[in-house]
Structure formats: structure tokens, C-alpha cells
Amino acid sequence: MDELQSEGIMLILSSPSGAGKTTISNELINKESNLVKSISVTTRKPRPGEIDGKDYHFINEKEFFSLCNTGQMLEHAIVFNYHYGIPRESAENNLKNGVNVLFSIDWQGAASLTRVMKEKVVSIFILPPSIKELQFRLKKRNCKTPDDEIKNRLDQACFEMERCLYYDYVIINDNIDDSVQKIRQILYSEKMKVKRKMNLKNFLHNMSH
Ligand SMILES: Nc1nc2c(ncn2[C@@H]2O[C@H](COP(=O)(O)OP(=O)(O)O)[C@@H](O)[C@H]2O)c(=O)[nH]1
Ligand SMILES: Nc1ncnc2c1ncn2[C@@H]1O[C@H](COP(=O)(O)OP(=O)(O)O)[C@@H](O)[C@H]1O
Q1: Main site of residence (predicted)?
Q2: 16 has binding-site annotation
Q3: What CATH number is given for 10-38+99-208 in this structure?
Q4: Predicted structure pTM score
């Protein structure tokens, strides 16, 4: 066990819709014991197969605004006409206890979390191998999604991908296992950074006395 304790990292994953961040997030959570996913709240309706409290907390607009107005949200944004936001308490408690927290959020959320939480944040942008592959994945995920909604998401994707310039890392999600492995390597390296070691001075002091 590492005697040098690190504070929890806020690991942000963003990508255009359909590039694979949900799939990658789920794999990461399965593989990393010290990583938990932050469950956002949203006013979007659940997709088939999505579970309330696991994929999102599905709430109505009134409940959403009440959370915002009482300071219970770390950040919130409108994406594809619905409200999304990060509940503050659970994320803050995990970080305090040295647990890493994964945020699968859009570029607006990434920008505002980075502005507020600064060095606690490590941000990764996931790119699809091509627009054609992105279109294929969007259709594969939910064949009931209307064509105009897929077109809307593809149009947005080009704009969103430009945002990768402002992230710490960028990954092309060709193969899921490779992408997951790359992110795990980033997490391990980030945890070893001197600035994240909470008890380094004490450790050195104890060694020399
Ligand atoms: N800013 C922000 N974005 C979020 C949050 N939760 C999810 N999102 C983003 O909202 C967008 C739409 O998410 P979703 O409805 O699940 O669609 P998907 O990206 O196609 O799976 C995605 O880019 C998510 O990463 C949040 O709490 N804050
Ligand atoms: N590397 C990959 N190769 C092939 N298909 C993938 C890959 N990553 C994700 N997918 C598939 O693409 C679809 C969209 O992935 P998803 O994780 O829901 O994207 P996002 O959360 O970014 O919207 C899903 O059907 C998923 O199984």
C-alpha cells in the first residue's frame, strides 16, 4: 500500500454524444476500486434500459431549480434542451475521503468545474475515430432515435470536438479496452504527482527523525 496518501481526483470525461463515454465510464468503475461515478440529475426522460439513481437521478424542472437555488449543485448546464447538474454533497464527501470521482459531463460542465475546483480536476476528451463511425454508434445505441435528433447530435459534435483543445488529455476511442487502459494509466500517473500527496512532508519528517 502507498503510504503517501493522495486526495481524491475529479476525473472528467467528455465527448460528443455517441463517442463512447458512458461505455468507458462503466468499464472504468468496474475495474477501479477507488473510483466512483458522480450521478448527475437531469430533466431528460430515461432512455430504455436506463435506471433512476444509477444512470441519472431523473427529476422534474421544479425539483431541478430547487436544487440549484439551495446551493446543492456543483455546476449545471443545458444540453440538448434539457437541464443537467452535479449534486454537490456526494462528490465533496468522496473527494475528502481520498476517493476519486468520475464525471461524465459536457464541455460546459468541464469548463466550470475546472474553473472552480482547479488542480483537483483532470480532464479527458474522448474523440470518435471518425464522424462516420460516430453516426454508426449513435444509430446502434438506439435505433428508435429519430433521424433529425441524430443529425442534430452530429452537427453539435463538430462544434464540441473543437473543445478538446482545452482539456488535459485527448483519446481516440477506437477500441474500448485500449481507451479504458489509457485512462487508468492517466489516473495512476496523476495520483503520483507531488502536489496531490497530502502527507509528504510528514513522511519525510518521520524518515529523518
Ligand atoms: N454540464 C453537465 N453536463 C452533463 C451532466 N450530466 C451529463 N451531462 C452531459 O450532457 C450530455 C447529454 O447526456 P445524455 O443525455 O446522457 O446523452 P449522451 O451523451 O448522448 O449519452 C452529455 O454530453 C453528458 O456528458 C452534468 O451534470 N453537467
Ligand atoms: N470503441 C468502440 N467501438 C465500437 N463501439 C463503441 C465503442 N465505444 C462505444 N461504442 C458503442 O457506441 C454506442 C455509444 O456509446 P455510449 O457509451 O453510449 O456513448 P456516449 O455516452 O458518449 O453518448 C454504444 O452502442 C456503445 O456500445
Answers
A1: cytoplasm
A2: yes
A3: 3.40.50.300
A4: 0.93
